[in-house]
Target: RNA exonuclease 4
Amino acid sequence: KGAQLGKFVAIDCEMVGVGRDGVDSALARVSIVNYNGAVLMDKYVQPQERVTDYRTHVSGIEPKHLGEGAITFKEAQAEVADIIKGRVLIGHAVNNDLKALMLDHPALFLRDTSRYKPFRKLASGRTPSLKTLVQKVLEFNIQSGSHSSVEDARFTMLLYRKVKDEWEK
Model:
């Protein structure tokens, strides 16, 4: 709880599969870090529907994570809304995270590293993966195993910080 909020926060969520064959996504973990990468929120979230695919190899989520210590969707939604209100929200394909949380955020206060033109050039105009960006821009390897939403949020913030002056022109 000692982390300072500040003007900029980065978010990343992990999803699990719900519904038939686990093709639909449900929020299972949400992580938010501040400008310096300190964790402001990192909570497991009980999906509102029965999980049919934990996607552990990607999400890092296991059944034990969504048990007792997990918060409800409504609690997660309220806590995130509270943290991001009036702040610049940085994310990679951040609309997916907002959609999973069923939250809106003013476009003026969104910075999406997957849509930033100079970053897209690194992927020949396509949408670059976070892994690719971190490799090319920060010269660091991430996501070798399952994803950590805290790690992903931190690297998203680092990407933003690296180009912030240029981006905000």
The domain at 8-168 is CATH 3.30.420.10 (Nucleotidyltransferase; domain 5).
